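Researcher: Here's the sequence for the chain we discussed earlier.
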Amino acid sequence: MMKITIGHLYPDLLNLYGDRGNIQCMKKRCQWRGIEAETIEYQLEDHIDFSALDIVLLGGGSDREQMLVCDKLRSIQKDFRDYVEDNGVVIAVCGGYQLLGHYYDTDDGRIEGLSLVDLYTEQGSPRLIDNIVLENDKFSLPIVGFENHGGRTYIGDNEPFGKVLYGSGNNGEDKAEGVLYKNVVGTYLHGPLLPKNPHISDYLITNALERKYGKAELAPLDDSQEIEANQYIYHRFTAKQ
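Model: Thanks. This is the structure I predict for it:
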């Protein structure tokens, strides 16, 4: 039986936006296909063995909580970078997405990031709060979610997670949202992200299985309800444009 292990980093501090829902979604979609899936939750004092992980989730937290994990993240930076460069799968949401980059400059000081991806974030005003709809030719369906962030993120020459059809995205300026780097997905979309976007959940699972086993063909699931929710949001908000 195929098996994946999901590492949830610091859920006591970085779980502002229901990030456990993303893990529950991935686990159920694995289990429905006969793929074993387990989750390991890591607290600040725990040692993280990245070689034992197939997917890493870095969730969202307040600026204060990001400051708290900042020093710990620096201590695991080399191991985390090695995992990313070896095509380890990462889903980083909101504050976790900001921590992938070099830094996040806030009114209370600079939060040093992991420098796993060449991006940076600066605090802006007002907060960017709304539903959001993206498109990316890599995926068969739109990507839908909700954004609520004060940071303005700039990803340089990296590939965005999607082009913004409705909403603000990374910075409200360049019509890009999130980032794709190797098998890393960074995004401001939460609520949580994956239940309304089964194609993104399967993208993460497929990449993890291919890295571990060399190939992966996921059996189709009945996603009619998920697709209906996805399409409702897509049509409701893009019709306003």
